[in-house]
Amino acid sequence: MSGVHISEDNRGIRELGAEELVGWDAVTQGVIINSFEGDATDVVEKKAEERSYSDFSSYTATVASWRVIKPVYNRDICIDCQNCWMWCPDTSIISRDKQMLGIDYDHCKGCGVCVEVCPTNPKSLLMFGETEDNEIALSGWPEKKKKEK
Amino acid sequence: MAEKYDINETEVWDGNFAAAQAMRQAQIDVVAAYPITPSTPIVEGYGGFIANGYVDGEFVMVESEHAAMSGCIGAAAAGGRVATATSSQGFALMVEVLYQASGMRLPIVLNVVNRALASPLNVRGDHSDMYLGRDSGWIQLDAFNAQEAYDLNLCAFKIGENMGVRLPVMIHQDGFVTSHTAQNINPLKDEDAYEFVGTYVPVEEMLDFSKPVTYGAQTEEDWHYEHKAKQHKALMDSREVINEVFAEFKEKTGREYKRVEAYMMEDADVAIVALGSTVETCILAAKQLREEEGLKVGIVAPRCFRPFPFDDIRDALSDVKAISVLDRSSPGGAMGALFNEISAAIYSTQNRPLVTNYIYGLGGRDFAVDEAKRIFKEQLAHADAGHITTPIQQFSGLRGPKLGFFETKRS
């Protein structure tokens, strides 16, 4: 995540679909599932990484394995316009105090919408193969395109 | 605070108004409804109570029965006591959402005033809609008259809301014959009725903001099967709770209900198995046959259609020689559903009685006492012969040439 440290939280701590499969007698009645552990009265005031998300919350699950291509974020070009944060369908752009911090690779599906909506020149987000190294991707970032007359 | 409703010890109500009164007494939080014949007067009556200040709850007029049940599910998930009513086409439109209500374990009460399903269009009573709901995961209770429609409404809340059950409950009554026939009804006083039903206790209610929940989560092949099995287990286990609630109701009112009702079965040689108002027709026929001709005939009637009383059916029918199972629904290329289920139950008894199937009364076609007598006598003839002497499936009260299917296979 381009060296940006978010926090020590439980984001994506388990692979979705790799849960321990319990029997019919141990499943939740009515598929009614809790989003948080304990009292969640003030949860709306807290940042995601401070919330006590339950094991049933998608926040604690990672779906990184679904992705084939990934967006790579270049902090040096970004203008913190928040366009990608607004458009991301999986809330996988991490932003704090209107500053873009990086991509939540545990939940990003690699759709590329963030790249499409990025207004900078060159773009601050570009798609690369899932197995490509981020540092190498950043080192070969394209130059600014000149306006065509 | 709701206005006090003056209620007499004996009232003259039809099945619809009896159901509406029971709903008023249960102090429901939300009724979401879309009226349809012949259940309209339930919704109309309840709407009248609201308009005149007799009910504190909310009444939501919606744009379809699909929306009515959806509204009920939302309100029940939010944490309220919820009920509604429908019939026939409206019930059919509700079906998709019925499965959601039971899957989410929401104890909604639904009055189904039984009516035929189109086409041909028909507002009269048969059991097509009741049968359409039989795999939906709801408890289904069947009222044979207006008093029972009232009583079973009160029981329905108590059964469905039991912490070991938490399943939705339907109360069925026959369109027009029960729903629009005024009878003497002995209701409970408001305070007694509410004391019996009890205060609603929500489970995982969405309006508890300290504990946000997801209802109706996606499961796929890893989890769906286990959840459905758990739901089925709860429905099967509700049999004991139904027994308990019926026992408590008897203590309070003197009126006794059982998951399987049996009339004149102590010494019966043959029996009719039926549902709905037809049960009372058959009781009258049996009384006359016993008094006038000394024929030992009886009636067995599932009060509880779901969970199907496999156990009590076997007990009730184990000693008879021949049984006719009456299905008031077009079977659509099979034997009648009740016939199939009764046959399956008694197949695992030592004494396997002869079982035949009558389709009857479709679209409100009258089923008279004389026809019930004829069917009883036909069963006695089977019993005397020691085998089924007619086609196994026949049609009763049908104009034109006799229609029947399948003979007994004999070597």
Could you characterize what this model shows?
- The complex is a heterodimer of chains A (149) and B (411).
- Chain A has 149 residues and is of the alpha+beta class.
- In chain A, 11% of the residues lie in helices and 17% in strands.
- Chain A has a two-stranded parallel ribbon with strand order 1-3. In chain A, strands 4-7 form a two-stranded antiparallel ribbon. A two-stranded antiparallel sheet of chain A has the order 5-6.
- In chain A, a hairpin with a 2-residue loop joins strand 5 (93-96) and strand 6 (99-103).
- Residues 1-5 of chain A have low confidence and may be disordered.
- With 411 residues, chain B is α/β, with parallel strands linked by helices.
- Chain B folds into 2 domains: 11-253, 3-Layer(aba) Sandwich (Rossmann fold), CATH 3.40.50; 260-405, Rossmann fold (3-Layer(aba) Sandwich), CATH 3.40.50.
- Chain B is 40% helix and 17% strand.
- In chain B, the strands form 4 sheets. Chain B has a 7-stranded mixed sheet, with helices on both faces. Chain B has a 5-stranded mixed sheet with strand order 4-5-7-6-13, sandwiched between helices.
- The longest helix of chain B has 30 residues, at 224-253.
- Chain B is globular and about 70 Å long.
- Chain B starts with 10 loop residues before the first strand and ends in a 6-residue tail after the last strand.
- Strand 2 (33-34) of chain A pairs antiparallel with strand 9 of chain B, so a sheet runs across the interface.
